[in-house]
Amino acid sequence: MILVLVAAWLGFLSLLVRFGILKSWTRWMKLSPLVMFLACQIFLLIPMSFGAPSGRAVVMKNTIQIIPSVSGMVIDVPIESEVELHKGQVLFTIDPAPYQAEVNRLEAALKETQQAAKMLPSDLAAANAAVLQTEAALISANKQAESLKVLVDAADASVAKQKAQAELAKAEFGRAKELAASKAMTEAELEANERNLAAAKAGLEEAKAKRQQAQLALDSQIDGVNTIVIQAEEALQIAQARRVKAKLALESTINGEDADVAQIQAQLELAKIKLSWTSVEAPTTGFVVNVSLQPGAMVLAEKSEVLSFVDESTQVIGAQIDQIHLRHIEVGQPAEVIFKLYPGKVFEAQVDKVIRASPSGQVAPSGFALESFEISPDPFWVRLAIKDKSLSFPPGAVGTVAIYTNHYKVSHIFRQLILRMENWLNYCRAD
């Protein structure tokens, strides 16, 4: 711009000399371009750098990495690259059959658990009845244990009685043999006495066996407690444990719902959520840069991105401004942006935010001392917003921004001229 002004001044002086207004090139006329150049530097270029700073600009949009939440085989990809999509539109579908089967299984399990929960009151009643029954059995066992000594005594008396009867039958059989030998008793009477002796011996053996059984029952003890009583006590403890379990199951609730039912319901809700995740939808308005995912591909949950989605709902114009020119920039100040993609067009904007930080000033957490590095005045980012909200620019579009601060406002005119000169040069300039 300064060179253009100097050239215009020289052209003006040449016209004055050509038309005779000035007779010839004087010394001050020859020095005037240098004076004008220095004056423009001091009174135009330097104030313009602070009052209307400029810098390179780029369009930035949020990119969402689409990572599937469930694993499976892709069965449908109904989208194309760089085609505008709306929020909720399906990007791709994972085979839902395994997840639908899990939902069906849990729904069946929920019905079964709900039915079992309805039976809990009757289970508790049955457990109470079983406790009462085993308590009665314990009382009976105690009485039976107390009567075992009486049974042994009765068995001893029975053995003595059977022994006496056996000895009497033996004596009668001996006399019968003598009588039969002298022909005083018939053979039939002898056989009858022999049968009586055998019956008496059998009765004696039976009485001995019963006596032994009664004695074993009396002697069957653990730590002084008869095993009949111990068995009854164990049965009572089992019944009481079952009653406690039934009572706890009846009282075990979460927000008024049976615990088992609540657990199955939670599993069912999670299964339904996973089933819904098989249909991956657009998170907002935007487009996919490159659709390389195809049906038949296997995707793994939360492993790596399969699509890169550009969010069209957010658009940021980022400009890099040198630190030395940043001092007067404030939020809300007007700005103008030109893009190489749209030569000849100037877009109105305003300062949205000044990011006063650069990567060189960030210290990462580390157990080591700071390493030495080359320090340079990296430019800071200034975020701009286009005033016309309906305009949408492709991410990565590059251009130039001019910010008009509240200082040195006379320099704004020259910055606008320079910006428009650059804008028209975009028709033929690539860099």
From TrEMBL:
Signal peptide: none annotated. The chain crosses the membrane at residues 34-52. Keywords: Coiled coil, Membrane, Transmembrane, Transmembrane helix. The keyword Membrane applies. Residues 62-305 form the Multidrug resistance protein MdtA-like barrel-sandwich hybrid domain. InterPro entries: MdtA-like_BSH (IPR058625), MFP (IPR050739). It comes from the Bacteria. Residues 176-217 form a coiled coil. Pfam families: BSH_RND. This is Inner membrane protein YibH. It comes from Symmachiella macrocystis.
